[in-house]
Amino acid sequence: MADQISAFEQFVRFGTDAYGLERLLRGLQSLTTLLLFFAPLRHLLLLASPFPSSPTAAAAISLATLTQLRTRLSALRQPFRLFRFLDSLSSAWSVFSSSPPSADFLGLVERWTDFGSKAFTGIYLVLESLTFVDVAVAVPGLGLFGSQEQVRATVLDGQRFWFLGLVCGILCALAKLGRGEGNIGGKSNGDGGRRYRIWRRLVADMLDLSVPGSMVGWVSLSPGKVGLLMLGSTVLTGMEVWERCGREVAAAKAERL
């Protein structure tokens, strides 16, 4: 595929894809978090600016500006996930109504943890969508909830379900690896490529545990460390979208031949 499409073509597809845009915004949000909670990074950025001593440059990376930017980036990501709960719940039903990949213990574990991952994630996305008007639209006097305390309680409930979904996803990936799924070949060939993708998703889910876990108090990490782990998971999950966009561009070019 690399000799059929250019990186620019792939980036154009990635940049116009809803999942790709959401990943880009998430990456910017995690970088903003790092700047907000790691003072040396802010100082380096200020020194690297063309006018390090100007008031404008200093104001651009002030704590108040970075805090507002991080909040705004988080809100900007929410419209891209507004109806994604439909996909998660539909996938959960498909797993529930299908036969397990195998009749052994690991096959049953894979089926039910896969179902749990998609179902819990779907519930999280439903709760997040309920806060869309209050959080993303953010017009005074317009909202589904009566107070910010109710909004925050709903957000925290959603984070708990996301955490459970990630745990189930990790267990599902371990069950797949335990069954020897994708044992043959290298990273880019056949089953080996699938095994590589399972490992990549497993690591991404483990890194992502820090985000909801820290919000609900189940994981004790500083915000700066959470931002670093969030950046790592964003890169890994962004690679999935990047590769899919490359396949779509290659398929579209092949149809025109």
The number of helical elements comes to 12
Element string (H = helix, E = strand): HHHHHHHHHHHH
The level of helicity is over 70%
Distance between the termini: 15 Å
Number of strands: 0
Overall SS class: mainly alpha
Low-confidence stretches: 184-189
Radius of gyration: 21 Å
Average pLDDT: 89
Main sheet specs: none
Estimated share of beta-strand residues: under 5%
Q: How would you describe the shape?
A: globular
Could you give a short description of this structure?
With 257 residues, this protein is mostly helical. It has helices at 7-15, 18-37, 39-48, 55-60, 63-77, 84-97, 105-130, 132-137, 148-178, 190-208, 210-216, 223-256. The protein has a domain at 82-220.
Write up this protein.
It is found in: Peroxisome membrane. By secondary structure, this protein is mostly helical. The protein has a domain at 82-220. Helix content is 77%, strand content 0%. The chain has twelve helices and no strands. It has helices spanning 7-15, 18-37, 39-48, 55-60, 63-77, 84-97, 105-130, 132-137, 148-178, 190-208, 210-216, 223-256. α2 crosses α3, α2 runs antiparallel to α12 and α9 crosses α11 (210-216). Residues 184-189 have low confidence and may be disordered.
